[in-house]
UniProtKB/TrEMBL annotation:
The gene is purM. Belongs to the AIR synthase family. GO terms for biological process: 'de novo' IMP biosynthetic process; adenine biosynthetic process. This is Phosphoribosylformylglycinamidine cyclo-ligase. GO terms for cellular component: cytosol. GO terms for molecular function: ATP binding; phosphoribosylamine-glycine ligase activity; phosphoribosylformylglycinamidine cyclo-ligase activity. NCBIfam families: purM. It catalyses: 2-formamido-N(1)-(5-O-phospho-beta-D-ribosyl)acetamidine + ATP = 5-amino-1-(5-phospho-beta-D-ribosyl)imidazole + ADP + phosphate + H(+). It is found in: Cytoplasm.
Length: 339
């Protein structure tokens, strides 16, 4: 005897659509697979991603990083630019990773929303895949979750983590930094993915010029390829990804207690978007430098004689760079001095 009664879907009644989740997987499969090479074993659909390290490294050290996009997703939603947030997610992880000289190997993402909108979610994941490919990093897996009642309205969140590898003898940890070494700044694309709670407060109920809005929504620069080429050709002593905390809190993380970074504020000009935020938000210079990257996305510390060579390499990747200071000997609680 067959049961001709149409089956009910209690999960759908609770607000979770399994079919949409399956549709999402199908729609992103080609983009995800495009990030794979022979080091990836198997494909999408398993319970875990498999990655073969190979024999390239004699004494490999695995490096792990995790991060999210933060409240930049809310601004991106407001202006229909959520497809750009995938690059932000990848960049916030792999940019941290390369500061120790590591090569990104693979990335996994976590996308959670109140309601799964297949097309929008697919565009975000395709953005993640494209950023992984630009970083020579496999999108090894991911997870989507519908959580009605937990996220309100059309809210969603993005998080992810990456794993990389570096030869133990080639780890860059700042221990070789000495007084007299130069601080070379590499331009940012904008605020990257930091300070957006304040940014959203500043722009609320204000008319924002199109050029400023474009800069605020621009995805975070991906630094792995240029940095990995740089460290092969130049003896970089230390690097810092300028994220939350700005120059003020991130540069001291790679200095020892007897070192201070002298930063010459006349060596660069805050880009227009940061000037606008400072003016409208009535923010002091010191607060700007502690909250935002102010146009500096990454810094490298190296010898003066290698600066010109380093700048030429970065220029070949269409990245501007400029000297902003040097390391001196001294003891200071802040370990950074603005001149």
């Amino acid at each position: 005897m067959t049961n001709k009664t149409k089956p009910t879907d209690p999960y759908a009644k609770a607000g979770v659509n399994i079919q949409k989740g399956n549709e999402l997987v199908r729609s992103i499969k080609a983009s995800v697979n495009a990030t794979h090479d022979r080091r990836v074993l198997g494909g999408m659909g398993g319970f875990a991603g498999l990655f073969q390290l190979g024999t390239k490294y004699k004494n490999p050290i695995l490096v792990g990083c995790t991060d999210g996009v933060g409240t930049k997703v809310a601004l991106s939603q407001k202006y229909n630019k959520t497809h750009l947030t995938g690059q932000d997610l990848v960049a916030m992880c792999v940019n941290d990773m390369v500061t120790c000289g590591a090569e990104p190997l693979f990335f996994l993402d976590y996308f959670a929303a109140s309601k799964l909108e297949t097309k929008s979610a697919a565009n975000i994941v395709k953005g993640i895949a494209a950023a992984c490919k630009k970083s020579n990093c496999a999108l090894l897996g991911g997870e989507t979750a519908e959580m009605p009642g937990h996220y309100a309205g059309n809210n969603f969140d993005l998080a992810g983590f990456s794993v990389g590898v570096v030869e133990k003898s080639k780890i860059i940890d700042g221990k070789k930094i000495k007084p007299g070494h130069v601080i070379l700044a590499i331009e940012s694309s904008g605020p990257h993915s930091n300070g957006y709670s304040l940014i959203r407060k500043i722009i609320k109920q204000r008319k924002v010029p199109d050029s400023i809005l474009k800069a605020l929504l621009k995805p975070t620069h991906l630094y792995p390829k240029p940095i990995l080429e740089l460290i092969k050709k130049v003896n970089v002593k230390g690097m810092a990804n300028i994220t939350g905390g700005g120059l003020t809190e991130n540069i001291p993380r790679i200095l020892n207690k007897s070192q201070v970074a002298n930063i010459d504020l006349s060596s660069w000009k805050f880009p227009a978007a940061f000037q606008w935020l400072q003016e409208k938000g009535k923010i002091s210079n010191l607060d700007m430098l502690r909250i935002f990257n102010c146009g500096v996305g990454m810094i490298c510390i190296l010898e003066e004689k290698e600066v010109s060579k380093a700048q030429k390499i970065l220029q070949s990747h269409k990245l501007k760079s400029f000297k902003i200071g040097s390391i001196i000997k001294g003891y200071s609680k802040e370990q950074i001095q603005y001149l």
